[in-house]
Design a protein that fits this description.
The chain is α/β, with parallel strands linked by helices. The protein has two domains: 340 residues, TIM Barrel, CATH 3.20.20; 89 residues, no CATH class. Helix content is 36%, strand content 16%. The chain contains 15 helices and 17 strands. The strands form five sheets. Strands 1-2-5-6-11-12-13-17 form an eight-stranded parallel barrel, surrounded by six helices. Strands 4-3-15 form a three-stranded antiparallel β-sheet. The longest helix has 16 residues. This is Putative monooxygenase MoxC. InterPro entries: Diverse_substr_monoxygenases, Luciferase-like_dom, Luciferase-like_sf, NTA_MOA. Keywords: Flavoprotein, FMN, Monooxygenase, Oxidoreductase.
Protein backbone atom coordinates (compact mmCIF):
# COMPACT_ATOMS: atom_id res chain seq x y z
CA UNK A 1 0.00 0.00 0.00
CA UNK A 2 1.45 3.36 -1.02
CA UNK A 3 1.95 6.04 1.60
CA UNK A 4 -0.32 9.11 1.47
CA UNK A 5 0.99 12.05 -0.52
CA UNK A 6 2.39 14.99 1.40
CA UNK A 7 -0.33 17.58 1.83
CA UNK A 8 0.18 21.12 0.56
CA UNK A 9 -0.39 24.06 2.91
CA UNK A 10 -1.73 27.17 1.20
CA UNK A 11 -1.87 30.72 2.49
CA UNK A 12 -3.12 33.80 0.67
CA UNK A 13 -1.91 37.36 1.02
CA UNK A 14 -3.24 40.65 -0.27
CA UNK A 15 -0.48 42.80 -1.69
CA UNK A 16 -0.11 46.50 -1.37
CA UNK A 17 3.18 47.54 0.21
CA UNK A 18 5.58 46.89 -2.64
CA UNK A 19 6.06 47.11 -6.39
CA UNK A 20 4.53 43.69 -7.09
CA UNK A 21 0.96 45.00 -7.08
CA UNK A 22 -0.26 46.13 -10.50
CA UNK A 23 -2.21 49.13 -9.23
CA UNK A 24 -2.15 50.65 -12.74
CA UNK A 25 -4.13 47.75 -14.23
CA UNK A 26 -7.65 48.95 -15.17
CA UNK A 27 -9.08 45.80 -13.55
CA UNK A 28 -7.38 46.51 -10.19
CA UNK A 29 -9.54 47.29 -7.18
CA UNK A 30 -8.84 49.14 -3.96
CA UNK A 31 -6.10 47.90 -1.66
CA UNK A 32 -7.62 49.46 1.45
CA UNK A 33 -11.41 48.98 1.08
CA UNK A 34 -12.81 46.13 3.14
CA UNK A 35 -14.41 44.64 0.02
CA UNK A 36 -10.93 43.75 -1.28
CA UNK A 37 -9.95 41.97 1.93
CA UNK A 38 -13.30 40.19 2.04
CA UNK A 39 -13.11 39.03 -1.57
CA UNK A 40 -9.57 37.68 -1.18
CA UNK A 41 -10.45 35.86 2.07
CA UNK A 42 -13.68 34.37 0.72
CA UNK A 43 -11.88 33.24 -2.44
CA UNK A 44 -9.11 31.62 -0.38
CA UNK A 45 -11.67 29.80 1.73
CA UNK A 46 -13.49 28.65 -1.38
CA UNK A 47 -10.16 27.18 -2.47
CA UNK A 48 -9.74 25.43 0.92
CA UNK A 49 -6.66 27.51 1.78
CA UNK A 50 -5.33 27.26 5.31
CA UNK A 51 -5.07 30.94 6.11
CA UNK A 52 -5.19 34.55 4.96
CA UNK A 53 -2.04 36.55 5.73
CA UNK A 54 -1.83 40.29 6.25
CA UNK A 55 1.49 42.14 6.18
CA UNK A 56 1.84 45.49 7.88
CA UNK A 57 4.05 48.56 7.65
CA UNK A 58 4.38 50.84 10.66
CA UNK A 59 5.59 53.87 8.73
CA UNK A 60 5.43 55.26 5.22
CA UNK A 61 8.64 54.28 3.47
CA UNK A 62 10.95 56.91 2.08
CA UNK A 63 13.76 57.41 -0.39
CA UNK A 64 16.04 60.36 0.32
CA UNK A 65 13.37 61.92 2.50
CA UNK A 66 10.45 61.53 0.08
CA UNK A 67 7.58 59.04 0.37
CA UNK A 68 7.60 56.13 -2.08
CA UNK A 69 4.97 56.70 -4.75
CA UNK A 70 4.41 52.93 -5.09
CA UNK A 71 3.26 52.34 -1.50
CA UNK A 72 -0.34 52.10 -0.37
CA UNK A 73 -1.25 54.92 2.01
CA UNK A 74 -3.95 54.24 4.56
CA UNK A 75 -3.81 50.45 5.03
CA UNK A 76 -6.34 49.71 7.83
CA UNK A 77 -5.30 48.36 11.22
CA UNK A 78 -4.50 44.64 11.17
CA UNK A 79 -6.68 43.54 14.07
CA UNK A 80 -9.68 45.48 12.78
CA UNK A 81 -9.40 43.84 9.36
CA UNK A 82 -8.90 40.30 10.72
CA UNK A 83 -11.73 40.59 13.25
CA UNK A 84 -14.01 41.78 10.45
CA UNK A 85 -12.93 38.84 8.26
CA UNK A 86 -13.75 36.44 11.09
CA UNK A 87 -17.40 37.39 10.61
CA UNK A 88 -17.46 36.59 6.87
CA UNK A 89 -15.43 33.34 6.90
CA UNK A 90 -15.86 30.05 8.76
CA UNK A 91 -12.69 27.97 8.38
CA UNK A 92 -9.92 30.23 7.08
CA UNK A 93 -7.05 31.06 9.43
CA UNK A 94 -6.44 34.77 10.05
CA UNK A 95 -2.76 35.75 10.35
CA UNK A 96 -1.57 39.25 11.24
CA UNK A 97 1.89 40.81 11.29
CA UNK A 98 2.45 42.62 14.59
CA UNK A 99 5.74 44.08 15.80
CA UNK A 100 7.32 42.98 19.10
CA UNK A 101 9.51 46.07 19.44
CA UNK A 102 6.74 48.64 19.83
CA UNK A 103 3.97 46.62 21.53
CA UNK A 104 3.55 45.35 25.08
CA UNK A 105 3.05 41.64 25.86
CA UNK A 106 -0.23 42.21 27.70
CA UNK A 107 -1.91 44.00 24.82
CA UNK A 108 -0.55 41.53 22.26
CA UNK A 109 -1.74 38.53 24.28
CA UNK A 110 -5.18 40.10 24.77
CA UNK A 111 -5.62 41.08 21.12
CA UNK A 112 -4.64 37.68 19.69
CA UNK A 113 -6.55 35.70 22.32
CA UNK A 114 -9.61 37.85 21.57
CA UNK A 115 -9.22 37.23 17.84
CA UNK A 116 -8.90 33.50 18.53
CA UNK A 117 -12.16 33.54 20.52
CA UNK A 118 -14.00 35.65 17.95
CA UNK A 119 -12.91 33.41 15.07
CA UNK A 120 -13.40 30.06 16.82
CA UNK A 121 -9.71 29.19 16.93
CA UNK A 122 -8.31 30.66 13.69
CA UNK A 123 -5.84 33.32 14.86
CA UNK A 124 -2.15 33.47 13.94
CA UNK A 125 0.58 35.97 14.78
CA UNK A 126 3.46 36.76 12.43
CA UNK A 127 6.16 37.86 14.90
CA UNK A 128 8.40 40.62 13.55
CA UNK A 129 10.99 42.96 15.06
CA UNK A 130 12.38 46.40 14.36
CA UNK A 131 15.45 48.29 15.49
CA UNK A 132 15.65 51.42 13.36
CA UNK A 133 14.97 54.89 14.71
CA UNK A 134 13.11 55.81 11.50
CA UNK A 135 10.27 53.41 12.32
CA UNK A 136 10.62 54.07 16.03
CA UNK A 137 9.89 57.78 15.68
CA UNK A 138 6.19 56.89 15.48
CA UNK A 139 6.36 55.32 18.95
CA UNK A 140 7.17 56.31 22.51
CA UNK A 141 10.14 53.97 22.65
CA UNK A 142 11.74 55.32 19.52
CA UNK A 143 14.50 53.33 17.84
CA UNK A 144 16.25 52.50 21.08
CA UNK A 145 17.09 48.88 20.29
CA UNK A 146 20.53 47.88 19.18
CA UNK A 147 20.14 45.52 16.19
CA UNK A 148 21.73 42.74 18.24
CA UNK A 149 18.99 43.07 20.86
CA UNK A 150 15.96 42.81 18.62
CA UNK A 151 15.68 39.01 18.87
CA UNK A 152 16.23 39.20 22.63
CA UNK A 153 13.21 41.46 22.91
CA UNK A 154 11.23 39.40 20.39
CA UNK A 155 11.87 36.17 22.29
CA UNK A 156 11.01 37.73 25.64
CA UNK A 157 7.87 39.27 24.16
CA UNK A 158 6.76 35.92 22.77
CA UNK A 159 7.57 34.10 26.03
CA UNK A 160 5.65 36.72 28.03
CA UNK A 161 2.65 36.50 25.69
CA UNK A 162 2.62 32.72 26.00
CA UNK A 163 2.82 33.01 29.81
CA UNK A 164 -0.30 35.17 29.67
CA UNK A 165 -2.11 32.75 27.35
CA UNK A 166 -1.13 29.88 29.65
CA UNK A 167 -2.32 31.70 32.80
CA UNK A 168 -5.76 30.20 32.20
CA UNK A 169 -6.39 26.44 32.31
CA UNK A 170 -9.51 24.51 31.43
CA UNK A 171 -10.31 23.93 35.09
CA UNK A 172 -10.15 27.67 35.80
CA UNK A 173 -13.69 28.03 34.46
CA UNK A 174 -16.35 26.30 36.53
CA UNK A 175 -19.90 25.86 35.30
CA UNK A 176 -22.60 27.07 37.69
CA UNK A 177 -25.46 25.20 36.08
CA UNK A 178 -28.04 26.41 38.58
CA UNK A 179 -27.25 30.04 37.81
CA UNK A 180 -26.75 29.30 34.12
CA UNK A 181 -23.28 30.84 33.97
CA UNK A 182 -19.55 30.14 34.09
CA UNK A 183 -17.42 31.26 37.03
CA UNK A 184 -13.65 31.78 37.17
CA UNK A 185 -11.51 30.28 39.93
CA UNK A 186 -9.95 32.88 42.28
CA UNK A 187 -6.41 32.55 40.87
CA UNK A 188 -7.40 32.33 37.21
CA UNK A 189 -5.30 34.50 34.93
CA UNK A 190 -2.61 35.33 37.45
CA UNK A 191 0.80 35.85 35.86
CA UNK A 192 4.30 37.12 36.55
CA UNK A 193 7.12 37.45 34.03
CA UNK A 194 10.59 38.89 34.56
CA UNK A 195 13.43 39.26 32.09
CA UNK A 196 15.87 41.82 30.69
CA UNK A 197 13.06 43.52 28.71
CA UNK A 198 9.99 43.09 30.94
CA UNK A 199 9.05 42.89 34.59
CA UNK A 200 5.28 42.44 34.62
CA UNK A 201 2.68 40.77 36.82
CA UNK A 202 -1.06 40.90 37.23
CA UNK A 203 -4.15 39.10 36.00
CA UNK A 204 -4.87 38.28 32.38
CA UNK A 205 -8.48 39.01 31.48
CA UNK A 206 -9.07 36.67 28.52
CA UNK A 207 -9.77 32.96 29.23
CA UNK A 208 -7.94 30.21 27.40
CA UNK A 209 -8.76 30.52 23.69
CA UNK A 210 -9.99 27.71 21.41
CA UNK A 211 -6.50 26.85 20.13
CA UNK A 212 -4.93 27.14 23.58
CA UNK A 213 -2.31 29.26 21.84
CA UNK A 214 -2.75 31.06 18.52
CA UNK A 215 -0.39 29.90 15.76
CA UNK A 216 2.98 31.71 15.67
CA UNK A 217 4.60 32.59 12.33
CA UNK A 218 8.05 34.07 11.80
CA UNK A 219 10.57 34.89 9.11
CA UNK A 220 14.30 34.66 9.59
CA UNK A 221 17.25 34.24 7.23
CA UNK A 222 20.22 35.14 9.42
CA UNK A 223 21.61 32.47 11.78
CA UNK A 224 20.05 34.34 14.72
CA UNK A 225 16.70 34.57 12.94
CA UNK A 226 16.76 30.89 11.98
CA UNK A 227 17.57 29.84 15.54
CA UNK A 228 14.75 31.98 16.95
CA UNK A 229 12.19 30.68 14.46
CA UNK A 230 13.20 27.03 14.82
CA UNK A 231 12.82 27.21 18.60
CA UNK A 232 9.62 29.26 18.72
CA UNK A 233 7.59 29.37 15.51
CA UNK A 234 4.86 27.05 14.26
CA UNK A 235 5.65 28.11 10.71
CA UNK A 236 8.43 30.13 9.09
CA UNK A 237 8.33 32.11 5.87
CA UNK A 238 11.11 30.95 3.58
CA UNK A 239 12.79 33.38 1.15
CA UNK A 240 13.72 30.51 -1.18
CA UNK A 241 11.47 29.49 -4.04
CA UNK A 242 13.94 27.41 -6.04
CA UNK A 243 15.60 24.07 -5.40
CA UNK A 244 18.20 23.16 -4.15
CA UNK A 245 18.64 26.23 -1.89
CA UNK A 246 15.05 25.85 -0.69
CA UNK A 247 15.69 22.22 0.28
CA UNK A 248 18.86 23.24 2.15
CA UNK A 249 16.92 25.88 4.10
CA UNK A 250 14.17 23.31 4.80
CA UNK A 251 16.69 20.79 6.18
CA UNK A 252 18.45 23.46 8.23
CA UNK A 253 15.28 24.71 9.93
CA UNK A 254 13.97 21.20 10.61
CA UNK A 255 17.31 20.13 12.10
CA UNK A 256 17.41 23.27 14.26
CA UNK A 257 13.89 22.49 15.49
CA UNK A 258 14.96 18.97 16.48
CA UNK A 259 18.01 20.39 18.27
CA UNK A 260 15.64 22.68 20.18
CA UNK A 261 13.71 19.65 21.44
CA UNK A 262 10.89 19.75 18.93
CA UNK A 263 9.67 17.33 16.29
CA UNK A 264 10.60 18.20 12.70
CA UNK A 265 6.93 18.39 11.72
CA UNK A 266 6.17 20.88 14.52
CA UNK A 267 7.31 23.70 12.23
CA UNK A 268 6.13 24.34 8.67
CA UNK A 269 8.24 25.98 5.94
CA UNK A 270 6.31 28.33 3.63
CA UNK A 271 7.84 30.47 0.84
CA UNK A 272 5.82 33.21 -0.81
CA UNK A 273 5.12 32.92 -4.52
CA UNK A 274 3.39 34.75 -7.32
CA UNK A 275 1.74 32.94 -10.22
CA UNK A 276 0.95 33.57 -13.85
CA UNK A 277 -1.43 31.25 -15.71
CA UNK A 278 -1.83 30.69 -19.43
CA UNK A 279 -3.64 28.30 -21.75
CA UNK A 280 -0.22 27.21 -23.03
CA UNK A 281 3.25 27.37 -21.51
CA UNK A 282 4.34 29.88 -24.13
CA UNK A 283 1.37 32.14 -23.40
CA UNK A 284 2.06 32.01 -19.65
CA UNK A 285 5.73 32.89 -20.13
CA UNK A 286 4.83 35.81 -22.41
CA UNK A 287 2.31 37.10 -19.85
CA UNK A 288 4.88 36.75 -17.07
CA UNK A 289 7.49 38.79 -18.94
CA UNK A 290 4.92 41.48 -19.71
CA UNK A 291 3.88 41.73 -16.06
CA UNK A 292 7.44 41.81 -14.76
CA UNK A 293 8.46 44.49 -17.24
CA UNK A 294 5.51 46.59 -16.03
CA UNK A 295 6.27 45.94 -12.35
CA UNK A 296 10.00 46.68 -12.52
CA UNK A 297 10.24 50.06 -14.16
CA UNK A 298 13.57 51.81 -14.45
CA UNK A 299 12.80 53.83 -11.30
CA UNK A 300 11.82 50.68 -9.38
CA UNK A 301 15.03 48.91 -10.44
CA UNK A 302 17.16 51.79 -9.21
CA UNK A 303 15.33 51.95 -5.87
CA UNK A 304 15.76 48.22 -5.33
CA UNK A 305 19.49 48.50 -6.03
CA UNK A 306 19.80 51.52 -3.73
CA UNK A 307 18.77 49.26 -0.85
CA UNK A 308 21.95 47.28 -1.51
CA UNK A 309 24.34 50.06 -2.55
CA UNK A 310 23.02 52.61 -0.01
CA UNK A 311 23.93 55.25 -2.56
CA UNK A 312 21.96 57.65 -4.73
CA UNK A 313 21.86 55.79 -8.06
CA UNK A 314 19.40 58.13 -9.80
CA UNK A 315 22.15 59.22 -12.21
CA UNK A 316 22.55 55.70 -13.60
CA UNK A 317 20.75 54.53 -16.73
CA UNK A 318 18.40 51.60 -15.91
CA UNK A 319 19.04 50.30 -19.42
CA UNK A 320 22.80 50.55 -18.88
CA UNK A 321 25.21 48.36 -16.87
CA UNK A 322 25.01 47.53 -13.16
CA UNK A 323 27.03 50.13 -11.18
CA UNK A 324 30.72 49.31 -10.91
CA UNK A 325 31.11 51.25 -7.64
CA UNK A 326 30.92 49.46 -4.27
CA UNK A 327 28.10 49.84 -1.74
CA UNK A 328 28.51 52.36 1.07
CA UNK A 329 27.02 50.64 4.15
CA UNK A 330 28.38 53.27 6.56
CA UNK A 331 26.53 56.21 4.98
CA UNK A 332 23.16 57.40 6.36
CA UNK A 333 20.41 55.14 4.91
CA UNK A 334 19.03 56.43 1.63
CA UNK A 335 16.10 54.00 1.83
CA UNK A 336 14.04 54.16 5.04
CA UNK A 337 11.34 51.80 6.25
CA UNK A 338 12.11 48.77 4.07
CA UNK A 339 13.35 45.51 5.56
CA UNK A 340 16.88 44.76 4.39
CA UNK A 341 16.99 41.20 3.05
CA UNK A 342 20.61 40.96 1.90
CA UNK A 343 23.14 39.89 4.52
CA UNK A 344 26.26 40.97 2.62
CA UNK A 345 25.96 44.11 0.48
CA UNK A 346 29.33 43.66 -1.23
CA UNK A 347 28.73 40.01 -2.13
CA UNK A 348 25.22 40.81 -3.39
CA UNK A 349 26.51 43.67 -5.56
CA UNK A 350 29.29 41.46 -6.95
CA UNK A 351 26.80 38.71 -7.80
CA UNK A 352 24.54 41.16 -9.63
CA UNK A 353 27.47 42.39 -11.72
CA UNK A 354 28.54 38.82 -12.51
CA UNK A 355 25.02 37.76 -13.52
CA UNK A 356 24.56 40.87 -15.68
CA UNK A 357 27.87 40.29 -17.45
CA UNK A 358 27.34 36.55 -17.95
CA UNK A 359 23.79 36.95 -19.28
CA UNK A 360 24.42 40.30 -21.00
CA UNK A 361 21.67 42.01 -18.99
CA UNK A 362 21.02 45.68 -18.36
CA UNK A 363 20.68 47.02 -14.81
CA UNK A 364 16.89 46.70 -14.95
CA UNK A 365 17.03 43.23 -16.51
CA UNK A 366 19.48 42.07 -13.82
CA UNK A 367 17.09 43.25 -11.12
CA UNK A 368 14.22 41.38 -12.76
CA UNK A 369 16.40 38.28 -13.04
CA UNK A 370 17.73 38.31 -9.47
CA UNK A 371 14.94 39.79 -7.33
CA UNK A 372 12.26 37.25 -8.29
CA UNK A 373 11.81 34.44 -5.76
CA UNK A 374 10.71 31.66 -8.05
CA UNK A 375 7.35 32.50 -9.66
CA UNK A 376 4.90 29.79 -10.65
CA UNK A 377 4.45 30.22 -14.40
CA UNK A 378 2.60 27.93 -16.77
CA UNK A 379 -0.63 26.15 -17.54
CA UNK A 380 -2.84 25.17 -14.59
CA UNK A 381 -1.62 21.57 -14.88
CA UNK A 382 2.03 22.63 -14.94
CA UNK A 383 1.64 24.87 -11.88
CA UNK A 384 -0.18 22.09 -10.02
CA UNK A 385 2.75 19.82 -10.87
CA UNK A 386 5.29 22.44 -9.74
CA UNK A 387 3.60 22.85 -6.36
CA UNK A 388 3.15 19.12 -5.83
CA UNK A 389 6.75 18.30 -6.77
CA UNK A 390 8.31 21.16 -4.80
CA UNK A 391 6.53 20.12 -1.60
CA UNK A 392 7.15 16.41 -2.19
CA UNK A 393 10.89 17.15 -2.62
CA UNK A 394 10.92 19.00 0.74
CA UNK A 395 11.48 22.41 -0.76
CA UNK A 396 8.68 23.54 1.53
CA UNK A 397 5.47 22.43 3.21
CA UNK A 398 3.39 24.72 1.03
CA UNK A 399 3.19 28.26 -0.35
CA UNK A 400 1.89 31.71 0.53
CA UNK A 401 0.29 32.87 -2.70
CA UNK A 402 -0.38 36.38 -3.89
CA UNK A 403 -1.46 37.88 -7.17
CA UNK A 404 -0.36 41.06 -8.88
CA UNK A 405 -4.05 41.86 -9.44
CA UNK A 406 -5.92 42.92 -6.28
CA UNK A 407 -8.37 41.53 -5.33
CA UNK A 408 -9.42 39.37 -8.29
CA UNK A 409 -6.20 37.58 -9.15
CA UNK A 410 -6.59 34.71 -6.70
CA UNK A 411 -9.87 33.65 -8.35
CA UNK A 412 -7.98 32.34 -11.36
CA UNK A 413 -5.81 30.10 -9.18
CA UNK A 414 -8.75 28.79 -7.15
CA UNK A 415 -10.84 28.07 -10.24
CA UNK A 416 -8.14 26.43 -12.34
CA UNK A 417 -5.33 25.07 -10.14
CA UNK A 418 -7.04 24.08 -6.88
CA UNK A 419 -9.22 21.37 -8.50
CA UNK A 420 -6.08 19.79 -10.00
CA UNK A 421 -4.31 19.78 -6.62
CA UNK A 422 -7.38 18.13 -5.13
CA UNK A 423 -7.42 15.54 -7.92
CA UNK A 424 -3.76 14.77 -7.14
CA UNK A 425 -4.69 14.14 -3.51
CA UNK A 426 -2.41 16.85 -2.09
CA UNK A 427 -5.06 19.41 -1.11
CA UNK A 428 -8.18 18.84 0.98
CA UNK A 429 -11.57 18.78 -0.73
CA UNK A 430 -13.22 19.94 2.50
CA UNK A 431 -11.97 21.35 5.78
CA UNK A 432 -11.64 18.60 8.38
CA UNK A 433 -10.19 20.49 11.33
CA UNK A 434 -11.87 22.80 13.80
CA UNK A 435 -8.99 25.21 14.39
CA UNK A 436 -6.13 26.55 12.31
CA UNK A 437 -3.76 24.28 14.22
CA UNK A 438 -5.88 21.30 13.18
CA UNK A 439 -5.80 22.25 9.52
CA UNK A 440 -2.04 22.92 9.55
CA UNK A 441 -1.32 19.58 11.22
CA UNK A 442 0.33 21.27 14.20
CA UNK A 443 0.52 19.83 17.74
CA UNK A 444 -2.78 20.05 19.56
CA UNK A 445 -2.71 22.35 22.58
CA UNK A 446 -6.46 22.50 23.13
CA UNK A 447 -6.28 20.11 26.08
CA UNK A 448 -5.89 23.20 28.26
CA UNK A 449 -8.59 25.22 26.53
CA UNK A 450 -12.01 26.36 27.70
CA UNK A 451 -14.58 23.55 28.05
CA UNK A 452 -16.74 23.05 25.01
CA UNK A 453 -20.28 24.35 25.17
CA UNK A 454 -22.81 21.66 26.04
Amino acid sequence: MSSPRKQVILGAYLGGVNHHTAWWDPRAGSQIDFSSFEHTARTAERGRFDFFFLAEGLILRERAGRIFDQDVIGRPDTFTVLASLAAVTEHLGLAGTINTTFNEPYELARQFASLDHLSGGRAAWNVVTSFDAFTGQNFRRGGFLDPADRYTRAEETLNAVRALWDSWDAEDIVADRAAGRFLARPDAGEFAFRGSQFDISGRFTVPRSPQGRPVVLQAGVSPQGRAFAAANADAIFSPYGKLPEAAEFYRDIKSRAIAAGRAADDIKILPSASFVLGDTQAEAIEKYHTIRNEQVTGQTALILLEQIWNRDLSGYDPEGPVPAIDPDPDAPPIIQGRAFLHQDRFATAARLRQVAEAKKLTLREAVIDQFERGPLVGTPARIADQITEFVADDGSDGFILGSHLVPWGLDEFVDQVVPLLQDRGVLRAEYTGVTLRDNLGLPNVRSASVPAKS
